[in-house]
Amino acid sequence: MCSEIIRGTSHEFSVSTGDEDVQENLAPEEQREREQCVEFLKSGIDQWVSEHIPEGSEFNRELLGGLVQYIGTAMRDRVMAITKLCGNPEKYVSRPAIKVYEGRDGKTPDIWILGWRGMPEEQKAEETDIHDHMSSEAAFHVFQNTITEKMYAIDSRQWGRDNSVLEYQVVNRDLQQGSTATIESPYIHVVSGKKELTLAVTIHAYYPPLHRMTFYAEQDGVLKKTGYWQKEDCHC
Predict the structure, then answer these.
(1) For residue 55, how many other CB atoms are within 10 A of its CB?
(2) For residue 140, which of 195, 201, 84, 215 has the smallest C-alpha distance?
(3) 76-83 and 61-74 helices cross at what angle (nearest 10)?
């Protein structure tokens, strides 16, 4: 059983849950500029969806990959404008996480732009917890610099029983600028920046929209569940 339920925020995105935990410190004009660029992205995403997803069809991870790659290339200037301050820790107090598109079940994915800042003085970089995306498939495009992904390979037979404790093998890879990766479900990983880089930026899409995530820890050679996140308005 999970020991912790986290509602309304996610360790993957580090979204603020209250005034006492401010994650961004943008000036009003900076906030307005970012919002304008996000609105432009939304219009472009809607257009892409109308051209690539026939009526009655749903996303799969290949289409998710095509969408995030499109955002990172065709709308590159807007993404650059949205993320130009992400390397500034005075503007983004916690790891930058900007939701640019709210998905709808049976229709469209959640889309986020995430930043990963190196911290050479601490000999590490910003990273996620060990997590899955439950039933959501995903894709991400490396928009700027390089990130590292640590994947936990799990024998498929383990998913058919109580998976609160999982045996695993680790696979590591670096993904460079311009790379696009797709993620099936179930899938457990950690994503991190590179300690020597000021900022890496990635664009992520999740379908069905991300309602739940499970968190894990490495303990005694196995993965053990430590908690999960559930979106506040999720009734599933």
Answers:
(1) 5
(2) 201
(3) 80
Instruction: Look up the CATH number of the domain holding residue 225.
Output: 2.60.120.10
pLDDT at 16 (0 to 100): 31
More confident call, 156 vs 153: 153
Full domain range(s) for residue 211: 5-15+24-230
Minimal CA–CA distance to 64: which of 97, 115, 101? 101
Give the span between the Cα atoms of 152 and 122, in whole angstroms.
25
**Dist CA 215 CA 210 (whole Å):** 14
The answer as to whether 225 is a domain residue is yes
Number of domains composing the chain: 1
In-domain check, residue 68: yes
- 204 sits in the region (left: phi over 0; alpha: psi -120 to 50; else beta) called beta
List Cα–Cα distances, 154 to 186, 189, 204, 205, 218, in angstroms: 9, 11, 23, 23, 13
Q: Tens digit of pLDDT for each residue in 66-125?
A: 999 999 999 999 999 999 999 999 999 999 999 999 998 778 999 999 999 998 777 789
Task: Report the predicted TM-score, pTM, of the whole model to 2 decimal places.
Answer: 0.88
